[in-house]
């Protein structure tokens, strides 16, 4: 019987395992690690660029007059990180280069009086691939861009500027740029500003419908609008309506007061009153248990449409034969005629007088 040497097979198995591990490292783990490091580095670069650009924006806003006196359409005012640090727009010791060793340089041109054309360039340092430059520009935001073939291109095609408008200054393809367009010292873009910019009401003005996404608007003082469509409840301390108010139902726990006509299909008093009972004030209307209308007159409830019988008395020939002419006093009315029996073989009648 032939014996096989196990050592050779064991060595072969180990080599295969190492080969597989090497393939995993070279095709998956190492590339993934490199991608993660690059993404982090790009994110840091974009964050630093935003910080510098925010300082640039504030500097231009605060120093528009002096910049305007220096910058022209062909000769720029140049702003650097050391200048921003010196003017306290960036903290002391803030690096003038990014983690790719690129230096910030802001060119401010003035093509028209009070209108600044601004671009912050990252010059020198590592030459970035266009794909990496695009990635950083996207992370910077709407103002971020990169240079390609002499054109400054905004992230995701948001804007495009020929570098000839910046005196032909061109650090080279793959370099990062940050755009800024100003008018009278205020940055001019399509963002909605929280604070008022003097002379620029358009920066606080919406040009399209504002969708709140179901969220609240709080702490408003006065809201001016042409129309309002509200599908739920309106809660207000007072409401002044100068024209018609259309409503399916009006419910009031207090008074409804009008200086003119109140018109409706029906009047239904909810208060039940009893004739002769005290009431205040005169003129109010209620109803009795049978549904008859009651009005308050002289401090007492009376049925409307009938004659009041607050005070009544009877006069007539109580004693029988009597040819006296009986009639109610002035201000009283005859409420009825009553037979009171026979007196001395004569019928006796009395009149009921009321007021």
Automatic annotation (TrEMBL):
The chain crosses the membrane at residues 12-35. InterPro entries: Shufflon_N. Residues 41-259 form the Bacterial shufflon protein N-terminal domain. It comes from the Bacteria. Keywords: Membrane, Transmembrane, Transmembrane helix. Pfam families: Shufflon_N (PF04917). This is Bacterial shufflon protein N-terminal domain-containing protein.
């Amino acid at each position: 019987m032939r014996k096989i040497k196990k050592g050779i097979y064991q060595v072969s198995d180990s080599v295969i395992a190492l080969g597989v591990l090497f393939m995993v490292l070279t095709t998956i783990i190492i590339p993934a690690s490199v991608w993660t490091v690059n993404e982090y580095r790009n994110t840091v670069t974009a964050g630093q660029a935003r910080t510098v650009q925010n300082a640039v924006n504030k500097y231009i806003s605060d120093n528009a007059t002096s910049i305007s006196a220096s910058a022209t359409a062909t000769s720029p005012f140049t702003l650097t990180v050391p200048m921003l640090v010196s003017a306290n727009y960036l903290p002391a010791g803030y690096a003038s280069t990014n983690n790719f060793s690129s230096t910030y340089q802001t060119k401010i041109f003035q093509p028209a009086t009070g209108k600044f054309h601004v671009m912050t360039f990252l010059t020198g340092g590592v030459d970035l691939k266009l794909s990496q430059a695009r990635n950083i520009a996207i992370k910077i935001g709407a103002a971020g861009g990169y240079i390609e073939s002499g054109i400054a291109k905004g992230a995701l095609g948001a804007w495009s500027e020929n570098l000839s408008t910046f005196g032909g200054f061109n650090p080279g393809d793959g370099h990062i740029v940050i755009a800024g367009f100003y008018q009278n010292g205020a940055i001019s873009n399509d963002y909605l500003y929280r604070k008022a910019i003097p002379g620029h009401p358009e920066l606080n003005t919406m040009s399209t419908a504002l969708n709140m996404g179901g969220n609240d608007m709080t702490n408003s003082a006065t809201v001016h609008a042409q129309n309002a469509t509200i599908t739920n409840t309106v809660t207000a301390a007072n409401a002044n309506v100068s024209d018609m108010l259309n409503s399916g139902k009006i419910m009031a726990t207090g008074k409804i007061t009008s200086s003119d006509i109140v018109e409706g299909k029906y009047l239904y008093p909810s208060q039940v009153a009893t004739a002769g009972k005290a009431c205040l004030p005169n003129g109010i209307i209620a109803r009795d248990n049978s549904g008859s209308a009651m009005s308050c007159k002289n401090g007492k409830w009376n049925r409307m449409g009938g004659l009041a019988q607050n005070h009544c008395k009877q006069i007539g020939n109580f004693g029988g034969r009597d040819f006296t002419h009986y009639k109610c006093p002035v201000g009283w009315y005859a409420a009825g005629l009553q037979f009171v029996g026979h007196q001395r073989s004569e019928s006796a009648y009395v009149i009921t007088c009321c007021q």
